[in-house]
TrEMBL record:
Name of the molecule in the record: ABC-2 type transporter
Source organism per UniProt: Streptomyces sp. MMG1612
Membrane topology classification: Multi-pass membrane protein
Gene Ontology CC: ATP-binding cassette (ABC) transporter complex
Domain of life the protein comes from: Bacteria
Localization (cell): Membrane
Single annotated GO MF: ABC-type transporter activity
Length: 258
C-alpha cells in the first residue's frame, strides 16, 4: 500500500473507531465547560483583556489532549487486543499508521474552536472579532500538524510502557502551563522562559491570540516556522525512536509484554 493510501486508510479506521467509542471525544464535550469557567473568571474579575486567553485555551487544550490520549490508546488497544504483533508484521510503517490516526483526531478536535466561540457569544455576549481570519486558519492548521508530530514522538513512550495511560495525564497540564495556554508565559518564573520556547504550544497559542487583535501580527513567518520546526523535529525524533524501540522489542520478543 502506497503512502497516501496507507495514510487515508489509517485515518478512516480512526474515524470509524471514534464512532464506536464516543468516549474518546470527551475532550470536545468538556471544551464548552472549560470556556464557561475561564470566561466566568475573567468576567467576574473585570479582566476583559484576558478574554482571548479564556477563548483560545479550551480548544488548544482539547487539541493536545485528544492527540495525546489517542496516541497512547492506539498502542494500548492493539496490545490488549493481541493485534500489535500482527500490525508490526505487516509491510505498513507503524509510524505512518500512528501519525495518520493522530492526524484524523487532530482534525476533528478543531471543532473545539467554534465551541469556545459560541460559549463566549451566547452565554457571555462577548463578541470576539477575528481581524485576521486567513492567518488564524493557517495557524490552526500548523498547530494541528505540530500536535500530530509531537504526539507521534510521545507514542514511543507508550510503545515501551506496559500501561500507556498511566503517563498520559502527566503530559497534559505541564505542557498547557509551559505553552502559555492557561496563563501568560510572562507570569512564569524567569528560569522557565527558555524552556517554554521549546514547546510549540507557546508559539501557536500566542499567535492565535494575536490573530484576535486589530493590530498587525508581528513576526508571523518566524513564529510559524518555530511551530512547524518544533513539530517536525518531534516527528523525526519520534520516528527514529519508534524504529529503535520496535527493533528492541522484536529482538527481545516482548512486543506484547513490554
Amino acid at each position: 500500500m502506497t503512502g497516501p493510501r496507507l495514510f487515508a486508510a489509517a485515518a478512516h479506521q480512526q474515524v470509524l473507531l471514534l464512532r464506536r467509542s464516543p468516549g474518546d471525544l470527551m475532550s470536545l464535550a468538556v471544551t464548552p465547560l472549560y470556556a464557561l469557567i475561564f470566561l466566568a473568571i475573567t468576567e467576574h474579575a473585570g479582566r476583559s483583556g484576558l478574554t482571548a486567553y479564556a477563548v483560545v485555551a479550551p480548544p488548544v487544550m482539547a487539541l493536545w489532549s485528544m492527540a495525546l490520549f489517542v496516541s497512547g490508546g492506539i498502542v494500548d488497544s492493539e496490545r490488549s487486543g493481541g493485534t500489535l504483533e500482527a500490525l508490526l508484521a505487516t509491510p505498513a510503517s507503524l509510524t505512518a499508521v500512528i501519525s495518520a490516526r493522530i492526524g484524523a483526531v487532530t482534525l476533528i478536535s478543531l471543532v473545539g474552536v467554534p465551541e469556545s466561540w459560541l460559549v463566549a457569544r451566547l452565554l457571555f455576549d462577548v463578541r470576539l472579532p477575528v481581524p485576521h481570519p486567513a492567518l488564524l486558519t493557517v495557524v490552526l492548521l500548523c498547530t494541528g500538524l505540530a500536535t500530530a508530530g509531537t504526539a507521534t514522538a510521545v507514542s514511543v513512550l507508550f510503545v515501551l510502557a506496559r500501561a500507556a495511560r498511566a503517563y498520559q495525564n502527566s503530559l497534559t497540564y505541564p505542557l498547557y502551563i509551559l505553552g502559555g495556554v492557561i496563563v501568560p508565559v510572562s507570569l512564569l518564573p524567569d528560569w522557565l522562559h527558555p524552556l517554554t520556547r521549546l514547546v510549540f504550544l507557546s508559539w501557536s497559542s500566542a499567535l492565535l491570540r494575536d490573530c484576535l487583535e486589530q493590530a498587525p501580527v508581528p513576526g508571523v513567518l518566524p513564529r510559524l516556522g518555530a511551530v512547524l520546526g518544533l513539530g517536525a523535529a518531534a516527528y523525526l525524533a519520534g520516528s527514529l525512536g519508534l524504529r529503535r524501540a520496535l527493533d528492541r522489542l522484536r529482538a527481545t520478543g516482548a512486543v506484547g509484554l513490554s
